[in-house]
Structure formats: C-alpha cells, structure tokens
User: Fold these one by one.
Assistant:
Number 1:
Amino acid sequence: MVIGILAVQGAFIEHRHMLEQLGVSSFEIRQKNDLLKPMDGIILPGGESTTMGKLLRDLGMLDLLKEKIAQGLPTFGTCAGLILLSQKIEGEKNPHLGLMDIVVERNAYGRQLSSFYTHDLFNKMKIPMTFIRAPYIKEIGQGVEVLSIVSGRMVAARQKNMLVTAFHPELNDDLTVHTYFLEMVSSSS
Ligand code: GLN
C-alpha cells in the first residue's frame, strides 16, 4: 500500500510520520506528474485552503486531482483539506474540489478559541483532538456519515471514499483516525 500526500503547502510531514508508524509508505505530491504515480489513497493536509486552492490551480493540478477523487481514490482531508473537498464554503462564491456534500464554515471558532486541544469521540472512540483555526461542518447531505461531534458541531465525517476531520489527528500520537483511513483504503482495493 502506498499513500500520496499533497505537499504544495501545509502540515504534510506530520502525516508521513503517522503513516511510517503504521508501517505504510508514502510520497509527497508537489506537481502534476506526481499525481500520475500509482497510489492507493491520498491525504490532503491542513494549512491554508485559499493558498492551497490557488497553488493547485496555478500548478494545473486541480482538475486531475478532482477526477481521481471522483473516480473513487480513498481521500483523507484534514482541516484545510476538509475545506478543499467541500461542495460549499460559507461566504465564498466557489468551492475548490467541491466533491463532498457538505457546507463548511471556515475559522469557525472565533479569535479566542481559534486553537484548542480536547478529547472527544471519533467513531465512538475517545481520542485527542487539536483544532487550529479550524472549520466545522455546518450542513451535510444525504450519504454523509458524521463521525464526530464536538460541542454540538460536526467535525469529522465520511462520504463514500472521502474522510474529513476539522481537527489535526497528525499532531497527536493517537493513530485511530489514520488507522480508520487505512481501513477505508484496504477495503476499496
Ligand atoms: N483556517 C484554515 C483555512 O481556512 C484551515 C486551518 C488549518 O488547516 N489548520 O484554510
């Protein structure tokens, strides 16, 4: 199994470290050609979604990436990655990849609470969660399964081959969410 990690911007190294601990190899996707390499799944990391979206367009990667995910490539988006995947970003005209049937609110926790650490349930398992200027999922469409609710807000969900978290599981040493994703990858191939 090999996982590609989008590495145009943001917290991609940390995902590589998580996968290493799980004995899974990965490579960084920095340009369009990297998207043509064989991979069993892809991670879209946290960072700044506007910058990432712009880089994906400038590097000519957005359409190919969108096509691969739409065709069923297992995909895990954290934080900015969640925003990239969503069909609608509150207050913005256009989405980026626009593949997942969710509406997101960016920077949703106000200034004082913009970054925080907590423990809460993901798929019925209690795990550490680090939120950094995080979005939350405001609305979901049919076919979206909610995997985590923190303080009444949806912060993790899955729709078919797409898994998203508003928090950063790669910044703690708990491997639950990455393990969940790798199970998605295994069962899709
Ligand atoms: N606030 C960022 C955005 O809107 C996301 C933050 C993150 O990925 N940690 O893109």
Number 2:
Amino acid sequence: MLESALRVLDTGRDRVEIIPTRRTEMATTAAELGIYADRLRRAQEELVRQGVDLLLVGPSSDFRYLTGHDAHLSERLTLLLLPREGNPTVVVPVLEAPTVADRRDLVDVHTWEETQAPSDLVATLAGDVAGKTVAVGDQLWSVFLLRLQAAMPGATWISATPTMRTLRMIKDFPELELLQDAARRTDDAWEEFITQPLAGQTEREALERLSALTRQRGLAGAWGLCASGPNSASPHHATSDRVIQPGDAVIFDWGGTIEGYYSDVTRTVHVGEPSDEFRRVYDIVYSANQATLDAVRPGVPCEALDEAARDLIAGEGYGAAFLHRVGHGLGLDVHEEPYLVAGNDLPLRAGMVFSDEPGIYLEGRFGVRIEDAVLCTDTGGERLNNATRELIIVG
Ligand code: GLY
Ligand code: MN
Ligand code: MN
C-alpha cells in the first residue's frame, strides 16, 4: 500500500534518490550526507523566503533532521548555525568533536575549550547581527538563548518553527520508509502481544511485555502507557501497579523508534464480555477514526480532520468526552507539526504523516481510543498502521 502511496509522492523535490541500504550502521556515506546537504540547502531557501538571516539550532530533532547527527544535549553548548547564504557551521565542545568528525564534509566544525564561553564563539562566527533576524530552534534551552542574546546584540529574535515545520512536515522518501517500517513492526508486536490474557497482570507488567515485544522487533526507545478500568478514562494516564481485572477496558498507547522516527499506536481491548455501552462507545470511536481518515486529502485544512471526528462523536452524544485534538504530526518527534486541531487552517499536503486518534473518556468508568499513523497522499489518506481495529475481547 505504501509503495503506491510513495509513487504518488514521487514528484521531484520530495523524492530523494539515494536511500541508505544499511541503516542500522548509520554509515555516513557520501549518499547519506547528500540527503542532509539537500535539507540544509532547502532550509536556506526557506530562510530567504521567510526573511531570516540566521538559523540557530541546538541538540534536537531539528538538528538531527538537518545534519543526521543526534547531538548530545547537555549543559555544554552544541549549536548549528545556518546562515541564509554560506556554509553551515556546528559549534561543539572540544571533547565531543569526534562525534561530528564524520560530518566535516557537510558542515564546518568549530570547537570550544572547557574554559571558553561558547556564546562568544557563536557571536564571532555570526558576525554583526544588528538589524538582522535570527531564528532559534524551539528546543534550545533558555539558558543558552539568554547567553546568545547577550552576546549578539541588536538582532530580532524569532522562533524557527515556521522554517523548520515547512521542511519537516513533508516527509521525504527515506523518512516515509522509516515511519512505515516503525509502524509495521509495532503492529507486529501487538499481534503477538494480544494473543495472551491480561487479567491478573498489573498495568506495568502488561506494558513491559508489549514494550519487550516491540524492542524485539528492532525498535529503540520503546515508550508507552497502559491504562486499565477507570484509569482508561485518563488519556495520558501514568502506567501504574493496578491489577487488570475482568470487566476492564484496557488502553495501550505505545511505540518506539527506528533511526529516531517514531511509531505511535493506540488500541483498546476489553477483558471479558463488555457492556452494551462499552460496545457502543467503541463503535463510535472506531467510526470516528475512519471518518478522520476519509477526510484526508491535500488542501483540506488540518482542523477539518478534527471536525470530522468531533462532529461524529458529538452527534452520538459524547462530544464533551472527546478531550483532545484528533491528531498530531509524527516523525523525529512523537508530537510535531502539523496539529489536527480546531483553529489550525493549515492545508494538508501530500507527504504529511500524522496520528488519527479519536477517543471518548467517561470519568470513573472507562475510555476508548483508537490511534493509527496516517500518510496524506495525492489521492487521500493511507494508514501506516494496520493492526486490527476490531474490538478484541481478552481473558
Ligand atoms: N494522545 C492525545 C494527544 O496528545 O493529543
Ligand atoms: Mn499515542
Ligand atoms: Mn499520538
């Protein structure tokens, strides 16, 4: 299915010709560096288009997106400087210079010694910024931003979100492959997990078994939650030692990463025979998940997807119990642009990947959420997750 979706996306700019073949080794071949050189070049085009003179990005998913380097976030400043013209530069503490040695064909590298002030080095490299516009990545710690602002007077400081989201919202071919791969493996872990009973296990034990199966399928950074019985009415419940019992709804919301790209799936199951109301709520959420998918098309505003789910749920009388937006972008961050929420009139574009996750939460009783990752293609939505969405009753 993705193959056909990707063919639809094969429209020049979005298609990167050379795909690394041995991803797990992260060999920095010329081909791989070419992907990042292309992203840096497109970021510079965006800086020109948006009237930005200099982009500053600390260790973050933005840094990784632009350079391929998963930079170490710490009290020592590491920073990417991308001027609208000229070479990208990475400033890095000298003890971490070896970690960027394989990026020297991509970026200039400047190191700072333990007793130096890295913000002064950045100011020197940036030159006179008086009257210029500096965009700052949204994950740069405030301590660094404050020091940089003091060292670089006269600039106008803005958020880099408009620049970075323009690039990152539209996934290129290697990114789509990784997201598809992560989704498939996560589905696969679920199919094995849900063959076993849950009653008698704690939420923590059940989640650990699912996480282990997810890791066994090659995903790193396994994360998630398990919410059982009344806890399932809390959308972001902190997994506890509550023992899962017959009569419980149980929500699993989990995933992992492949080369930094996330999966994010939710399935709700029932332990033993459910009530008529649970079945009804499940069917409503199931239909809302489908209605959201059906609304996906390039040009449709993000908020229309939320509306599709919300109208359906409200029409069944549960509007007040749908406590969150219907979805969020998925990529190097588990929550990223675009956000599918009322008030966001950003038009969907082919290549966007986002969650489709309507839910109904009845306080003190139970909740239901069904979540898949969805790719927007030229012709509509394609699910990246295909683990069964039919109601599963477990022991
Ligand atoms: N998991 C729902 C949200 O964060 O919007
Ligand atoms: Mn989720
Ligand atoms: Mn999600």
